């Protein structure tokens, strides 16, 4: 809801915190954004109580950094969510990397001649099926599955809407499934 001066209520609350260190305004900010931030962080994959910790950390940062807030550059929500996103990224970066144990392949697991021929034949069928797709579908599928690009990144690099990218991939995969339905694993 926008007030007569053109700012939303949360933005006015943050201005009150910035200008007067208004504790009541901060409490309203916390009550308003706390549950929303927690939901965002839970959707982002934070579990085991760390979402609540990040919310506390974000709101503490809001209190301490309120002097940096400029309502003419961003709404309070955008400013606060950016702090939360950055905290979440920092938390993920600080976590130790998962070291996967290398599994040894049992001896005698080398593909034999019939397996090699079958794989080569399947690869030929796949190339032929890809050649029958529309070029824009092939491009989207290659970026998504061979270059391991997220759909949003494909959208950003091609300049196409995200929905278009998703549709091209979905339609291309459906066509590939149809084209390759006769190939059955043995």
Structure report:
The chain is mainly alpha-helical and 186 residues long. The chain has two domains: 86 residues, Orthogonal Bundle (Rna Polymerase Sigma Factor, Chain: A); 67 residues, Arc Repressor Mutant, subunit A. Helix 1 packs across helix 2 and helix 6 crosses helix 8. The protein is elongated. The mean pLDDT is 86.
In short:
This is RNA polymerase sigma factor. The chain has 186 residues and is mainly alpha-helical. The chain has helices at residues 9-20, 23-43, 50-65, 76-94, 113-131, 135-146, 151-158, 162-179.
List keywords for this structure.
Arc Repressor Mutant, subunit A; mainly alpha; Rna Polymerase Sigma Factor, Chain: A; 2 domains; 186 residues
- CA radius of gyration is 26 Å
The unreliable regions are none
User: How many separate domains make up the residues?
Assistant: 2
Mean pLDDT: 86
Largest sheet: none
Global shape: elongated
With helices defined by DSSP (H or I, 4 residues minimum), what is the helix count? 8
> What's the name of the CATH homologous superfamily of the largest domain?
RNA polymerase sigma factor, region 2, helix turn helix motif
CATH class category of the largest domain: Mainly Alpha
Query: How much strand content do the residues show?
Result: under 5%
Order of helices and strands: HHHHHHHH
Query: What is the CA–CA distance across the termini?
Result: 62 Å
> What is the name of the CATH architecture of the largest domain?
Orthogonal Bundle
What is the count of β-strands?
Answer: 0
Helix content: 55-70%
CATH topology of the largest domain: Rna Polymerase Sigma Factor, Chain: A
Class per helix and strand makeup: mainly alpha
Domain RNA polymerase sigma factor 70 region 4 type: 126-176
Family: Belongs to the sigma-70 factor family. ECF subfamily.
GO molecular function: DNA binding; sigma factor activity
Keywords: DNA-binding, Sigma factor, Transcription, Transcription regulation
